[in-house]
Design a protein that fits this description.
The protein is an alpha+beta fold and about 140 residues long. The chain has helices spanning about 15-30, 65-75, 90-95; strands at about 5-15, 30-40, 45-50, 55-60, 75-85, 110, 115-120, 130-135. It is about 25% helix and about 40% strand. It is globular.
Length: about 140
Amino acid sequence: METPSSVHHVGLAVEDLDGALDTYERLFGARLEHRSRVEEQGVEAASIRVGESRLELLGALREDTPVGRFLAKRGPGMHHVAYEVENIAAVLAQLSEAGAELIDETPRRGMFGLEVAFVHPDSVHGVLSEVVSVG
């Protein structure tokens, strides 16, 4: 059974992406790694490094998007935890066999060139979880 090599990033939903970038830079010395806008997903995201760790700041482009609905319901805060794996298809099969409810049964192209798939929060004690592969 393949286990994740690391926590790839923690995703944070923010109401003001530029303001959040400024705050994380000013308070924690964060460095911008990538920034990208994906219209079809209704999100603009910034990957930042804080030391060796990575955060993904997620800003909604519209209210009727997953991040927009999250912000309307819960407000800003932790959105998901992403785990890095080598073989995402094999890990999805393992998760499914272990009883996890998959949001994405097959990987899709995510932000910053990653292959990604999400696991429903009901399967992980209320935490939306993502598996990512850099390959």
